[in-house]
Prior knowledge:
By secondary structure, this protein is mostly helical. 74% of the residues lie in helices and 0% in strands. It has helices at residues 2-8, 11-28, 30-33, 70-106, 108-123, 126-136, 141-168, 171-178, 183-219, 231-238, 247-274, 276-281. The longest helix has 37 residues, at 70-106.
Amino acid sequence: MKTLIALCRRPSVAISLLLILTIVLLAILAPWVSPYDPSEQFIEGLSMEGAPLPPDETYRLGTDLLGRDLLSRLIYGARTSLFIGLAANGLAVLIGTLVGLTAGFVRGWLGSLLMRLTDLMMAFPALLLAIALAAIFQPSVWIVALVIAMVNWVQIARVIYSETVALEARDFVAVERTLGASSLRILFSHLLPHLLPTILVWATLGISTTVLLEATLSYLGVGVQPPTPSWGNIIFESQTYFSEAPWLVFIPGAAIILLSLAFNLVGDALRDELDPTLVGRR
């Protein structure tokens, strides 16, 4: 609670939290707050020449190339993008924490094997690996989330491994071992509580990365497939009308940037509050 109050005292973080909360509520309440069905094509939603309509009183953010309401598609797209961001990042944090903690705590051949696997995964560009995996499997919301998790766990695994090794060298762990504490007690009573702030910060910062990666995959056509709306495939579908209807690209693009920036600001502030070395320095 104290951490939340400290975060809210920063104007940029308070605005970011408000933006995240607003988008989350819109995504949850999409069936009730959305003006129209996101897949409904309106005959009057296109001009006489068959072009998308600009924002007006009927369609607040205009229509897309098929006459669908852009605001409705953005609201439902937020649901897709947030779900993939949270699910993929949660799975990536879980895998990375398990791999890093096991490698740092167990050591030996198993630790070396896990770290060499991590190094091998880090050698591949994340975007290219994600595109390759997404192209192999039939794209869907769950497959996209799984693919993003498979390429995003390596960074946190490295961080958790380094911190676990550093913590094991501390005196309090040596004392616990001398007093006969079991490995499980040391792991759950001493190591994990110290690692929790790092895991929390990476869980927050990682959502930004997963949202951006999902939008990139959807834009490239190997992510969430139409007619399921996501912010990435909205831009992909509308790019041919960039000159005539720039709002179709700018509005979802701005939504992606703002949401990613908000999570980054919150994650950075959370790191400042939870990192004892930074607290002492301030």
